Every structure is written in C-alpha cells, then in structure tokens.
Amino acid sequence: MTTALAHTWYVTQRYSRTAIRQPIWVLSALLQPIIWLVLFGALFKRIVEIPGFGGGSYIGFLTPAIVVMTAMFSAGLCGMTVLADLDTGVIDRMLVSPVRRGAILGGLLVEQAAVVFVQCGIILVLGLVLGARYSGGPLGALVLLVAATALGVGIAGLSNAVALTTRRRESVIGVVQLLLMPLTYLSSAFMKLELVPGWIRDIARVNPVNWAVSGGREALAGNPQWGHVFLNVGLTVAFAVVTTLLGTAAFGAYRRSV
Amino acid sequence: MSTERVRLGTATVRDRARGAAIAAGGLMKVYKGGVKALDGLGFTVAPGTIFALLGPNGAGKSTTVKILTTLSRPTEGDAFVAGFDVIREADEIRRVIGVVAQRSGVDGASTAVENLQLQGRIYGLGAKTTRLRTTELLERFRLTEAAGRAARTYSGGMRRKLDIAMGLIHRPRILFLDEPTTGLDPEARADMWQEIQALSEQEELTVLLTTHYLEEADRLADRLALLDRGRLVVEGTPEELKAGLLGDSVQIELGTSELPALLSAELEQLEAVRAFSVEETQLRAQVDHGATALPVILAVLDGYRVPVISATISRPSLDDVYLQYVGHSYDHSGTTVGGPR
Ligand SMILES: Nc1ncnc2c1ncn2[C@@H]1O[C@H](COP(=O)(O)OP(=O)(O)OP(=O)(O)O)[C@@H](O)[C@H]1O
Ligand SMILES: [Mg+2]
Known about the structure:
The complex is a heterodimer.
Chain A: H1 2-20, H2 23-43, H3 58-76, H4 78-88, H5 90-95, H6 101-129, H7 137-166, H8 169-185, H9 198-205, H10 208-220, H11 226-257
Helix pairs in contact in A: 1-6, 2-3, 2-6, 3-6, 3-7, 3-8, 3-10, 4-7, 6-7, 7-8, 7-10, 7-11, 10-11
Chain B: H1 10-17, E1 22-30, E2 36-45, E3 50-54, H2 61-68, E4 76-81, E5 84-85, H3 90-96, E6 97-100, H4 112-122, H5 127-140, H6 156-168, E7 174-178, H7 186-202, E8 206-211, H8 214-220, E9 223-228, E10 231-236, H9 238-244, E11 248-254, H10 261-269, E12 273-279, E13 282-287, H11 290-303, E14 308-314, H12 318-326
Parallel strand pairs in B: 3-8, 3-9, 6-7, 7-8
Antiparallel strand pairs in B: 1-2, 1-4, 4-5, 9-10, 11-13, 11-14, 12-13
Helix pairs in contact in B: 4-5, 4-6
The structure holds adenosine-5'-triphosphate and magnesium ion (MG).
Residues 31, 35, 37, 55, 57-63, 102 of chain B line the site of adenosine-5'-triphosphate.
C-alpha cells in the first residue's frame, strides 16, 4: 500500500513539473475562467430579474458554475497527455519497471485533481472580488471544490478511456468538444432548473455536471439542505469512480494489445 | 549449421533456464488482426555474455524484447529471464532487468537529472542512493554538462545515452537494448559500443541487444541469432556462423545500376552461385569456389553488356551469413570493394 502511494506520488510529481513548465498553459488555465466569469457575468446580469429566479446577485449564482466548468474543461484533454506518453514510450518504460500499474494513470489523475482544486480555488477568490458572497462559508467553499474536483477527475477518467481505446488525438478532442458544452448547458449552471424546459430538466437529473453544480452551489448557500448536497456530491464522486474504472479497463486493453 | 527447429516443451525450457540469463522456447506471438510476429522462437543466453538479435524489419526482434521484458505476453511458448517465468513472475523479472526500448521513453519535458531520479525512485532506490547513482551515470555517459536541460533539447546520441543510463540506474543483472545505435553517427556509435562492452565486462551484465548493423553484432556479440519472419534462422558465435559458410564471397562493382531484367534469372540458374544480391552497383554472390565462379559470373555480365569496374573474392563476412540465410544483403558501409571509382 505504501509502495503504491509512493509510486503514485512520483508519477504525480512528474506531471505537475511538466505542467508548471508550460507558461502558456498556466496563463490560459487562469485566464480562461476569468474571461468566462467576467463575460457571462455581464451577459446574463439581468437574468436574476426574471420572475421565479428569486433575485440575488447573478455573479453569486454564476461563480459555482464557472468553478465547475473550469474543472471540466481543464480535465477534458487529460487523455492527450496519455497519448503523448504512449508515443514517446514513457508509459511502456514504466510498464517494464516494478512501478505499481495503478500508479501510472493514478499519478496523472492525482495531478489533474490538484490542478483543478487550485484553479477552482483561485476562481472562488476572484468571484469574491467581483462581488459574489458565499454564505456557506469556508465549509461550503470546500464542498464546492470537492464536487468540482470530483467532476474534473471523472472527466479526466473519461478522456483517458477514450484516448486509450482509440489512441487518436482527434477522438479525444472530438469527444471533449461534443460532450462538454452541451453537458454544461443541460444543467443548472447558468439558469435555475425551475425556469428551463422539462426535457432539459430531465436530462439534468442524470448529468454529472448538474450534480456537481447543484451540490456545490447548495453547499455554498446559506442554510444548505445537506441531504441535497450529499446526494449530488456523492453522485459526482461515483461518476469519478466509474470513469476511473473505465480508464483502468482501457489501460488493461492497451497492455494486452502490446 | 543446422537450421532445423526443435520444439521444446516447458520442462526443457525450464531446464535450460537454470543457470542461464535468458531461456526461451516455442515463443509464438499473434497480434490482433492475425499478424504472426513470432513463430516458435527459442534461444538461450548465458550469464555475463552479449547476445545479439539480427533480422530484417518486422522479423520480430522488438516483439521478442517486449515479451522478455514482460511488456507483452506470448500467445504460446515459454520464456525465463534470470530464472523467472515471464508470465507468472513478471514482477521479479522487472526488478532485475534494465530496458532500453526501440522507442526512447525519455520524458522530453524533464531534465536528465529528473528523468534519472524518477527512474531511480520507481525502482525503489532511496533518495540518497538515487542522487549518487544519478551523478555517477551522468559522468559515465558524459551528460553532466547537459544534465540540467530539458531532454527535448538533446541530440539523438545524448538522448540514447540518457536512455541507457536510465536503464542502468538500479544496477540490473540483465540489460535489454533494442537498436541502441540506430540513428547515431559513426563516432557516437563507436562510443556506445565501448560503453556496452565495458558494461558487460566490468559489471558482469548480461546484454541482449538487437541491431541492424552486422558490424555491431560482429564486434560486440558473443553469440548472435538471425531472425526472419518470427523464426530463428541460425544461431551461434560470429566465428561459427562465418566458418559455417563454405566457399567464398564474390563482390563485383558494376559500372551501372540499371541492369537488364533477365540478368537476375540467369545468375540464379548458375550452378556455381548459391545466393546473390544486387544493391545499387554492388553485386555480391555466395559461391563454392571463388576462383572458378568469378569467370562464369563475369561472362554472364559480359553477355548482357554490363560494365564491370572491379571484382574481389573474399572469405565470408557476417554480411554473407545474413545474405545466405535471409536472402538479401544489407547496404553496409563497412564493406568496400577495391578498384578505381
Ligand atoms: N502492437 C502490434 N500490433 C499488431 N502488429 C504488431 C504490433 N507490434 C508489432 N507488430 C507486427 O509484428 C511484426 C514484428 O514486429 P517487430 O516490431 O517485432 O519487428 P522488428 O524485428 O523489431 O522490426 P524493426 O527492425 O523494424 O524494428 C511486424 O509485422 C509488426 O507489424
Ligand atoms: Mg524493432
């Protein structure tokens, strides 16, 4: 067990190092959510005035959504890293070493989780600067970050599974583009579910993005309904577990195909 | 030299594995889609020796290395490395082998130091041992100066050296090198040969290497095996293989590379010629008696009005061994044919 943890940690360190060394990546990872927050905040500012929305500040409503969106888009291309490491032979080199098999993808997922967690934390602070108020306090913020990180890991697992199954960059990019935007809009990210058509509401119920937004947003609100929070954050974590297993299975299939 | 293949059961492979660094028998590998990469391959490598696998592209050299290094599972057959079964005792094998694959496996975004340190830690070396080994290996492979630079900025030769250093960090007992010198300039290649030789002598390392350079196998290998289409064609020491070829080798430099279509067929029919190949303006033939075969060949060439610049008769080289068994010769810079250009 300690060996597995140690190995995972070594692999995590390697990925963190290479990520931090790409200044463009670091910059865009921070700029993109800022742009979203400012842009969507301005664009949809008056949505709160719609009857039934219940008032409040839109930036306060939007910040958890941007947090979750950032998590998704940040992790979506995780599979590209796997493909690059397959191409250069880095993964094969690990496979002929005594490294624990689970540490190879595990280390990458931990790195993704850490990146997402930090990125989302920064957005929360930024939201505060732009006028959002978090009545749920630090505990609520933490729950939101956990939900966003779980969603990020879930998307990363999915991305890895697609990458290892198809072994094509185009497939990873294609799936990400096809899935992430619709999943975002088929949730309560920008609009209360009470105000959207019934069919969108139905889809949202089984949409992991909605689970993360809805659970996290509730936790951040004053006097949250903890039952709702636990259910949704729990479902998001379950999603992460399932896609991690999918990624692991795809990795097994790769190993058998060598 | 017998090219007959003997099918060995697990028991006998296991017997051979006792005291051997590597023993394989009846190895088959069928990839998805039905490609038969290995077709009943078997051989034994004694500890402390250098063993070379040769063969044309697609012969199954890398597949063999992948199976012996536990990356890939054989479809059938048995293999033991350091006495351990490649399927049931893969973990044990992974601890005692070093692997340098055909595809590098160096992380370009990290420095040489970082690559080596990650490798050391993964193999269970402590932080201090890893640091010491890293410094030692960087010096040994003359990478100290570049050690702090991202590996993506290295030349092909430097990267290959780092590759080998990474394969050695945990002091393996058996080292696998899949085409260690492909893409290196002659100087870097000679350098690498020295390193490999030294490793085998000083550290009692067993080395299995694959190569396309016959000269390399001749220089380095204690024994070598020739593969073709997943099968062992011939195996032995370079001397045995050369001695096993009766007769002489005839090399003729032609004045043109545009040869009449029928020439080939006619040469094939000559009693005196056992095998031949033409590459650009070099004709190379395996014959029983050089002195009697040469006039016959020259007469045929003359009949087709193919100008001849020079002709040489020599004792067989590994090129001829290769030519004899695999049927087409390498374009090989080490072979020169005398005469004015
Ligand atoms: N993962 C794979 N899936 C399907 N076929 C494969 C796979 N790997 C290798 N092959 C096939 O198996 C055969 C043997 O390949 P291998 O890489 O072992 O040859 P090699 O002797 O190393 O050749 P080279 O000198 O070009 O490196 C080839 O026909 C190759 O196309
Ligand atoms: Mg190969």
